[in-house]
């Protein structure tokens, strides 16, 4: 590999090493609030979090797919199936470190 290729490779690697966007960080924070409400079985906080999730979705900051995922967790908790909601939330956390 010549020097020019090495420099180009370095730029490509560094370009891909950026952290999550502010939007992804805020989505993660919103999810962590939801996970906390579900873990504590706190219906009042659950409703606040559900509204926050809907607001982020309505403004285009949360994708349709991730909105559906989070809504499934909210709906399980609303139905009183807190343990299944928590299981879904932890599975989501594992599969989606940061998300749009």
Helix run count: 5
**Helix and strand string, N-terminal first?**
HHHHH
**Helical fraction:** over 70%
Largest sheet: none
The share of residues in extended strands comes to under 5%
Mean pLDDT: 88
Uncertain runs are 7-15
The end-to-end distance, rounded to whole angstroms, is: 37 Å
Explain the overall architecture:
The longest helix has 19 residues. 77% of the residues lie in helices and 0% in strands. The N and C termini lie far apart (37 Å). It has 100 residues and is mostly helical. 17% of the residues are buried.
Question: Which terms would index this structure?
Answer:
single chain, 100 residues, mainly alpha, 5 helices, globular
Gist?
The chain is mainly alpha-helical and 100 residues long. The chain has helices at 3-15, 22-40, 43-58, 64-78, 82-95. It contains 5 helices and no strands.
List the helices and strands and how they pair.
Blueprint: H1 3-15, H2 22-40, H3 43-58, H4 64-78, H5 82-95
Helix pairs in contact: 2-3, 2-5, 3-4, 4-5
